[in-house]
Amino acid sequence: MEQLLEQLYSFQAMHKFFKKYFKSKFHFMKKVLSTLFVLTFTAGISIAQENKLVVSAGPAVLIPTYSEINSVGFSFGVGIDYKLSNSLSIASDIDVDVFDSKVRNLFTDQITDGFILMPVLIGVKWKPVNNLYFAGKVGAVAGLKNASTNFALSPGLGYLVNINGKQKLDVGLNLVGVPGMASIPENTFLDKGGYSFLSLKLAYRF
């Protein structure tokens, strides 16, 4: 009986330790990501004078590709492209994604009523022809509500629409994938990852 109590106590202590560890780790990642993007936007103001910077902003419809996300989401985001050449750019995005999906925790039987994510991604954008482009980005999806921060990958493609001779509209389709992480049993996919969704975005290029 004493051995059983000792094992139970050890399990509870380990549970508290890992929960505290992951929480502090994700909180630190949020601070780092926020700082990096503040610096990116600040640097972008001076770079814009060289006509190498393109800033875009617009809404998106989010289409889940993971069975436990049972509703379409909506998003609004800002992107910054720094032109290395006519066909190659460094591309970065920050979005706020809102899902009204109910998620059931199979371990505790609790239901999460909606969640909000903030993907922060950076990578490259390549235009093989004048208006068509392909993109590949990496970064993190920060959890703003009922979710944790995890590593993310995002391949995509898009088409630039001309208005009055200038490429002013960006119609893009991206897959945001969050790989699964080792985690304590009662965490859902919103904490440990292992989910993905498509983002169909219409952005205006300034």
Structure description:
- There is one protein chain.
- By secondary structure, the protein is α+β, with helices and mostly antiparallel strands.
- The protein has one domain (2-205): Porin, CATH 2.40.160.
- It has two helices and eight strands.
- It has helices spanning 2-47, 189-192, and strands at 53-64, 73-83, 88-104, 111-126, 132-145, 150-163, 166-178, 195-205.
- The protein has an eight-stranded antiparallel barrel with strand order 1-2-3-4-5-6-7-8.
- The radius of gyration is 20 Å and the shape is elongated.
Summarize the structure.
The chain has 2 helices and 8 strands. It is an alpha+beta fold and 206 residues long.
